[in-house]
Write a structure and sequence with these properties.
Length: 360
């Protein structure tokens, strides 16, 4: 399987470029089957007012024990029911967040030839990319991205980060550092909420854990009802901290049979649990399917930082969460092995974590 990850199976089309040519009809490769289109059975969800929970993280450090308890419990409920929540007062500088996102907007405005210098290969995905999944003929999504590693430090290669705009490298370093710190705090809270030792999850991820970022760019689309910016998937890693575009919504989260469109709060992050936390918690916590819709009016930029176990760590349900009534639901796997699936097939709903389910 590794060999097929060395190069893309067909020429890569930049979606931004396609969008800028002014086409009125999108190529077939981007047209989703009817049941995957944004318009399929969306009346109920569109009419509902439900949204993912919002957590004020300051409550976790309140002098009032009752506020601390309520805040932790709100996070616990969100992890069980939604696998998603927004956080405010999260400790990351708002000014830094804004500048980092602006830098990336500027990056995507650079001429195509400049961005092409960073064109990526599927062996590491680092750089400027336009597809997830290396299998020939897979359905394509209406987005481009820039991907890079931040941790472990041994695989960080700042030479692969953009030199333009000027401030990009420095901002990315600082942004990633602050967001990784936030992830550490959340991991401790998740552990405690699950009744585990405070550092249980962090230890399960390993000392040399991973953090990588994908900056997603969703260009305007002339036929947004036929395609998706990012097909339905759950994130394969530990947790994702998403900084969405404040001007344009697009992220949808599955809630039962509905897709709920998240309304971003200015300066908030969207936190979502990935498959590894579902496995470690023996499915007490859920990694929930989500997808991105596009529109014909505005492009959208989002920054996703993925916080992952060290590649060689074997991830399996925590022993304390395995009981006679709740046997281990998943087979042990390393994250390196697990990650190959998404990198081969691209986003495929929740089929991957389901494939790990122990046979009963
Ligand atoms: C992702 C993702 C959502 C978004 O990058 O995995 O789900 O809003 N992104 O861009
Ligand atoms: Ni995702």
């Amino acid at each position: 399987m590794l060999n097929c990850l060395n190069s893309w199976p067909e020429p890569v089309t930049r979606v931004q470029h396609l969008s800028e040519t002014g086409i009125r009809v999108i190529p077939d490769r981007y047209v989703k089957k009817p049941s995957d289109r944004p318009t399929f059975l969306q009346q109920a969800a569109a009419a509902s007012q439900i949204d993912i929970p919002v957590v004020d993280m300051q409550g976790l450090w309140s002098g009032d024990a009752e506020i601390r308890r309520r805040t932790a419990s709100l996070i616990d409920g969100a992890c069980r029911e939604w696998g998603f929540f927004q956080v405010v007062n999260h400790g990351v500088s708002h000014e830094l967040m804004g500048r980092t996102r602006e830098t990336w907007r500027e990056f995507f405005k650079l001429p195509l030839e400049m961005k092409q210098r960073y064109a990526n290969e599927p062996s590491t995905y680092e750089g400027y990319g336009s597809r997830l999944g290396v299998e020939k003929g897979i359905s394509l999504d209406w987005s481009d991205y820039f991907f890079f590693h931040y941790l472990p430090i041994g695989i960080r290669d700042e030479n692969k980060w953009p030199t333009q705009p000027d401030s990009c490298r420095q901002l990315m370093g600082e942004y990633s550092r602050q967001v990784v710190e936030l992830c550490g705090k959340l991991m401790n809270i998740f552990s405690t909420n699950l009744g585990l030792k405070e550092d249980y999850l962090q230890k399960a991820f390993g000392e040399d854990l991973g953090a990588c970022m994908r900056v997603n760019y969703y260009p305007k689309c002339p036929q947004p009802d036929l395609t998706l910016g990012l097909s339905a998937h759950s994130d394969p890693g530990g947790m994702t901290i998403l900084f969405p575009d404040e001007n344009v919504s697009g992220l949808q989260v599955r809630y039962g049979d509905n897709w709920v469109t998240v309304k971003p709060i200015p300066n908030a992050f969207i936190v979502n649990l990935g498959d590894q936390l579902q496995v470690l918690s023996n499915a007490i916590y859920k990694s929930v399917e989500h997808r991105v819709i596009v529109n014909s009016e505005k492009e959208r930029v989002s920054l996703a930082l993925f916080y992952n176990p060290k590649g060689e760590m074997v991830i399996k349900p925590a022993e304390q969460l395995v009981t006679a009534e709740q046997p281990p639901l998943y087979q042990p796997t390393t994250f390196n092995e697990y990650r190959l699936y998404m990198r081969t097939k691209g986003p495929s709903g929740k089929s991957q974590v389901e494939s790990l389910e122990s046979t009963k």
